[in-house]
Amino acid sequence: MKTAMSNNSPGATDHDGKSIWKFLLSEMKPKGKFITPFNIISIPVMLLGLALIVIRFWKGIGAITNLTQEIPWGLWIGFDVVTGVAFAGGAYVLTFMVYILNMRKYHSIVRVTVLNGFLAYLFYAGALLLDLGRPWHVINPIIGNSFGTSSVLFLVAWHFLLYMIAELIEFSPAVAEWLGARKARKILSGMTIAAVIFGITLSTLHQSGLGALYLMAKDKIHPLWYSEFIPVMFLVSSIFAGLSMVIFEGSISEKVFFKQISEKNHQAQKSIIHGLAKICAGAMFAYFFLQLLVFIHGQHWSLLNTPMGFWYLLEMLGFVLLPMLLFIVSYRTHNLTLIKIAAIITMLGVILNRLNVTVIGFKWDMAIRYVPSWMEFVVTLAVIFTEIWIFRWVINRMPVLRDSPTWVNENM
Amino acid sequence: MGINRRGFMKLLGVTGVTLAIGRDAVATTGKTNEVEFYGILYDAARCKGCRGCEYDCEEAHGLPEPLPTNKIPAIRQTDETCNTVVNRYKTSKGEVFIKRQCMHCNEPACVAACLTKAMHKTKMGPVTWDGDKCMGCRYCMVSCPFDSPKFEYHSPNPKIQKCDMCFERLKTGEMPACAFNCPNEALLYGKRRDLIREARRRMYEKPGLYTDHIYGEHDAGGTGWLYISPVPFEELGLKTTLQQSSYPALTKGFLYSVPSVFVLVPALLLGIHQATKNNGSRDENSDE
Hints:
The structure holds two protein chains of two kinds. Chain A is mainly alpha-helical. Chain A has helices at residues 20-28, 37-59, 75-87, 90-100, 110-131, 140-143, 152-179, 182-190, 192-212, 230-256, 263-298, 307-333, 336-360, 374-395, 406-411. By secondary structure, chain B is α+β, with helices and mostly antiparallel strands. Chain B has a single domain, classed as 2-Layer Sandwich (Alpha-Beta Plaits). Classes of the chains: A mainly alpha, B alpha+beta.
């Protein structure tokens, strides 16, 4: 990944005298080496995914998925949407810390986290369209000819849309800096606080709302995972899910986009990750305690000594308690590697938890279980790869990881 | 602070809309209790398992013809090609038949789940589906405690299929096809209140013939289809562990919290933001 760091790079000046269209056209071209291991793996998967999507719209959802009349939501909802949105939770937590609590230390990673969150919503909500049987009616709940206001999904759909707008506003100053639009940047950055407050409110509601979707499936979800507190659990776990993602993504970006990050931010990185580890540990403690309360309150002791009970214990002890302890230990010993390991275990735990509610524990007593088809996995991977492509494209052009052009501070 | 004020106004507007929407949701769920729903009483003691209702249903809805009895298993599920099935169970009192279809709940989970109002509880009682509104998200299927809505997975323009209690026939004053044609009078169409009374009368007049349970009177908060049977309903494959209150009530608490969150959280955030605004320099050096 070669990127010019000088202030003469596109965006820093007025497009080197080029017209805006010529500038945009030149920016569409790929930058850096084309033949990289990531490209070699991702391109075939994306092409195969595209072919599968064509088949899906031509022959119906059943042609490429293993969904049944009893299991109407599978991997695409349980992983792409429910888990993906939990991982995008870092954006609202970080904007809360930086813009509401004014914790300046974390400012350097806000942009990349918001970008990540925005793309996650864009792509995972986009993946939702693949799962809709009649996607051409997707605007019905938006344009108002039929508001199903008693539906949790109605709330979630609106929140996805509004939150994407809020995140786009939060990110828009970076776009303005890229285009060299000074006036627009001033206006857009003035809207940040409003967008942040709106975005956090939306996030608290739809992070929990994704859990609330499953409240009516009371008899279908294994009792160890079903309680009326699913929404609270989803909200609390989205905090450490999102921050673990920030730690994970940050440690990869630091290597891949090394040249873009300024020396000052490189040094700040360590202290940022320590801070995030501390917050993760706190949120996970609250989460573990909540789960414990719900478990005791539910009086499910007898269920523990069953295969699903062992599975539950594995999730709670191995993927919540263990990474929480690792976060605490690594924070105290200032061990960065251990923090990254803890973040990865935490992320696996969040995937496990979301899949346990939505797929594994859903109709757990059925004779024939739902196992996603290989095609569902390929489409999911294709969506993730496409998102990474766009992410890389933006990072290489806009001032996300690298510092803003000098005129930004001059104008302040 | 002009921008902030504008942002605040925007929030205020959204809050107002949410409040209005929230109130609307309360009104619709409250009203259902005042309407007199129609339903169908199924008497398992009278059903001879002729499966005539399956054929009538297929004819009324233009679905494929059911297979003859010697070519089907004893126990089947409804699917996207058939809205009703009659299953044969070997029970403690010999062979007993049971007809399965959408239960047409008083407060249906599918209707509460539907974000486009494609699923609709009509004033007469049937729960119907509107293809012009449905976006095929299948949340109704996730929510329905009876797994009634079925989806055409192998169609590029898929529909949700389920019993609609022959709503088109009801509108012209006719009875549902199955209840109209049943040769054994195992199916009785009428006002739900009258059906419960009739079920009690049958239980009273023939003591010992029926178990003391009208399935659907309270199950899942009350359903349009009501069942009486000589054997406990567990033996007939009906879920008897369903809650006795309505399923939409499960999401009520969450939905009611939405307006409060929309009012309180932005106010709180704005307050904290103002309070910490000048702390920037101090935070730079602090540990947190």
